[in-house]
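Run folding on both entries below.
>entry_1
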Amino acid sequence: MMTSSLTVSSVNVNGLRAAAKKDPGFVGWLASTEADVVCLQETRAEADQLPAGVIGPEGWHVVLAPASARGRAGVAVYSREEPDGVRVGFGHAEFEESGRYVEVDLGGVTVASLYLPSGEVGTERQLEKERFMEAFLPYLVKRRREVVEQGRELVVCGDWNIAHAEVDLRNWRNNRRKAGFLPEERAWLSRVFDEAGYVDVVRALCPDQEGPYTWWSYRGRAFDNDTGWRIDLQVATPGLAARAVSARVERAVEHGLRWSDHAPVTVRYGAR
């Protein structure tokens, strides 16, 4: 069981090699973070493509789960403690080597990094997203039952690529027919909360706040105008969610200091 506090951060890096080359960039952020665990999505890199300061930074244990299709997707977990166990994928053949899910056991808590497909209406990408959601929900139900039986907790961090409610994106009226805010996608996410029994940790801590947004397009002045989407979530079992004491989106102070089109979402969970 988790007996001490735990700080977890999650960010879609939009290409780990590119994020690491920027100054300031991922390497500088990692050196300064107070997180105990960092979940990454869209790494788009193999271990042999990353410099030592990224794949083996001092003080961190790194689990990298790249996609079999090089240059696509990819997830990772950085932890200050060595994991007790590691699992890549969620047991579904199509997505087993897709670089979209990895989980690690750290004491009494399992921390997962998820990169749910983004989709695109009217294309195979949307069909892939729908297949992923159909397969992933039963896994979430099963995993919650398993961790509860084991007296453990689970948090699935990552880019869920769905804005759940109107308060989760600035320009919701113009996006009602676009991937990421489709009624069926939002209904699926509701099932994660209502049927599978997980908690959207940031929303639970900030029930009335617009956003806080986690992704802004590089087009136009979306970042400067805070025209964003809240699609990067920490979704936890109720016991762990109840211990969340603070959450913040680490939004860059200005456009030029961004090293991804997403910002880290950091949550501190108190001791039990």
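>entry_2
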Amino acid sequence: MERFVKLTDEVKFEVVEGAIAVITIDRPERRNAINQGVIKGLEQAWKRLEEDGALRVGILTGSGDKAFCAGMDLKEAAAMRLKVPPRDMFPVLGDSMQVSKPTIAAVNGAALAGGWLFAQMCDLCIAADHATFGITEAKVGRGMPWAAPLIRMLPQRIFMEVVLTAQPLSARRAHELGYVNDVVPFPRLLERALGMAREIAANAPLTVKAARELVYLSAEMGRSAGLRAAHHLFESVYLSDDAQEGPQAFAEKRPPKWTGR
């Protein structure tokens, strides 16, 4: 696979260190707003990440320092006279698209409306210290059904405030609430996201995949059902070659050689 490719005029895909894909929404002149080129480019990007066996982690970010993504391009939406958006209109991980590998949002500026959705759908989130998160649909008379999972990610009254007032949260506030994993100065944003991606990519891939799934199934199940599902989930991990390689490498004081089998 090529190391760097423009999937569309609006989306770039770069492979870093052979195991990490950096996906960039590249429309800084329009605050990286979502148009058809962004939609098509992200669909291709997530598909590439999932299908390339060498890739372990994906990072999603935006160009420039103004906006991660300002949501749907409202000029395009007005021209379309869009009413109820089809559920598969946007490439949403865990909904219209399935990716089994960890993803990190590197939020380089304002993440508004659909931009918040793109940050929300990733597994982890690193934000620049000037970034903001806002669900602004109430300001333009649109809806936010995609925000339902936030009830597991934010306290209820904060969630209520965000959707009713349409006022943004700062990156610092989002971090205090546990929505953002880390906040760093903008020049260090990609470095910090890559550092986290390297830590994940160095771990046993079967364990990482199952652990990621564990988090999501635990959020949707009660305690007993979650425990039963988790034991089943990790059985194939325990029986893998990697489960023997890890302890052996530790005993021999060498880095493990993961095969994903």
